[in-house]
Amino acid sequence: MTNTDIDETSELVSFPIQRTCPFAIPPVYTKFREEAPVSQVVLPDGGKAWLVTKYEDVRAVMSNPKLSSDRRKKEFPVVVPGQNAALAKHAPFMIILDGAEHSAARRPVISEFSVRRVAAMKPRIQEIVDHFIDEMLKLPRPVDLNQVFSLPVPSLVVSEILGMPYEGHEYFMELAEVLLRRTTDEQGRIDISVQLRAYMDKLVEEKIANPGDDLLSRQIELQRRNGGIDRPQLASLCLLVLLAGHETTANMINLGVFSMLTRPELLAQIKADPANTPKAVDELLRFYTIPDFGAHRLAMDDVEIGGVLIRKGEAVIASTFAANRDPAVFDDPEELDFSRDSRHHVAFGYGPHQCLGQNLGRVELQVVFDTLLRRLPDLRLAVPAEELNFKSDALVYGLYELPVTW
Amino acid sequence: MRLEKDHDRCIGAGQCVRTDPRIFDQDDDGLVKVLIERPRGADEAAAHKAVFICPAKALSLAED
Questions:
Q1: What's the rounded mean pLDDT across residues A126-148?
Q2: Is B36 near chain A, with CB under 8 Å?
Q3: How many domains are there within chain B?
Q4: Would the pTM of this model clear 0.90, i.e. be above it?
Q5: What is the spatial distance between Cα A17 and Cα A19, in angstroms, rounded to a whole number?
Q6: Which of B8, B10, B18, B54 is the best mutation test for A, with the most CBs of A within 10 A?
Q7: How distant is the Cα of B36 from the closest Cα of chain A, in angstroms?
Q8: In what helix (H) or strand (E) does residue A308 lie, and over which residues does it extend?
Q9: Taking the CB of the first residue and of the last residue of chain A, which one, N or C, has fewer CB atoms within 10 A?
Q10: What are B13-57's pLDDT values in tens digits?
């Protein structure tokens, strides 16, 4: 009796694991977490990876310096077709760098997103939210909240932070949507990357010629003082900030509004007192954990995670979604509960790569939920909830449209 | 108990400041500043929470 690799592979669960219910975690995650919290799965290209599903283990993976984020490495697990070829069209994004290289890329930017800096942006964010509500109120009902509000708000916020002309946002948003679609093929992803790269290169050149009071201008000035402007690196930074800063927030706005419109008791909690909103925002972040394709790592050395030996050269996927539904850490984790303190969730990741813009995202969501639900007390879904189209095929979970009326 | 910070590890996520802005702040570079080095009572509980929540393990509590 031989124990072949083929026989073993045929029994492995395929990753990514799609959501079928908008609220519940796929049962296979729960089964893994309970029975084999560090187990092998098979990836779309036939490669294998260790899937990690317990909160404690997920944090251990994401903070272990022996587990690399460097997608330029040939052995790096491939979950999305064309991802590595598309990445090769850009100077490395900070999210794929390790150790000192990562630190050198992140350090110059962190003060731009400090708690104090983000708090200072709040009045402008409020103006932007009010502006798009004013515009929405002029439209015939129903409207697609995603198109007229959820996407425009973070797009304008992040455009202003970078110093990018808002006129370009529609073009950018169309490209980004295709890039983040899981079904986009390899060539499609490469083509979009080339276009986005050209767009960002142009923005960097324009900003060098005409600096302003914005993140990109300050980075250019800092680099100039330190010996020279690294244009490709700046283009990658801008693209990362844009990609990370608008789709994600838009999806959380849609999912948050959807949750409150279908759960009156949650809506009542938000309306009762604005002091409840920050907790509600973190609970929504925990509950939906929208980038649920997991954090991918490559073992640079033998590492033990959750009692399992992961050997050098093997791939690891840390499921932040499974971690955020771990009953060992969150009581009754399948319940969306605005009164709980869930701020230790890992929806923004964990370890040195934890989301740089997380405090901006939180403030945007707080202002949006407080303002939208106060100014439109009769806001309601314009179609039955069962007809909504959830993004279970995208890299970032959310809703394709959110038809609402008032 | 004494709160210690490690600037080499700090990634400026600001989770400590959000845990308790009386105990923590961020400097001009966005790195952690400890305002109360010897937290007591409720401050000590908040300090423990900040240590747990810090994504970069840049904070620790040392025995005196």
A1: 98
A2: no
A3: 1
A4: yes
A5: 7
A6: B18
A7: 18
A8: strand A308-310
A9: N
A10: 999 999 999 999 999 999 999 999 999 999 999 999 999 999 999
Does the distance separating the beta carbons of A113 and B30 come in below 8 Å?
yes
d(CA B14, CA B19): 9
How do beta strands A38-42 and A13-14 pair?
A: parallel
Of A291, A292, A284, A288, nearest in space to A260 by CA: A284
pLDDT tens per residue across span A33-43? 999 999 999 99
Could you report the predicted ipTM of this complex, rounded to two decimals?
0.96
Please identify which residue in the block is written with the tokens 């022996």. Answer: A66
**Strand partners of residue A405:** A380
* Model confidence pLDDT, tens digit, residues A346-383: 999 999 999 999 999 999 999 999 999 999 999 999 99
User: Alpha-carbon distance A130 to A240, whole Å?
Assistant: 27
Which CATH number is B44's domain given?
A: 3.30.70.20
* Domain carrying residue B33: 2-62
**Residues of chain A neighbouring B19 (CB-CB closer than 8 A):** 343
Give the distance from residue A106's alpha carbon to the nearest chain B alpha carbon, in angstroms: 8
DSSP state of A338: T
Interface test with A, best of B6, B15, B33, B59 (most A CBs within 10 A): B15
CB of A385 within 8 Å of a chain B CB? The answer is no
pLDDT at A148: 96
Prior bond to A142 cis, omega within 30?
A: yes
> What average pLDDT does this structure show over A209-238?
96
**Mind giving me the DSSP string for A33-95?**
HHH-SEEEEE-TTS-EEEEE-SHHHHHHHHT-TTEE--TTSTTS---STTHHHHHTTSSPPGG
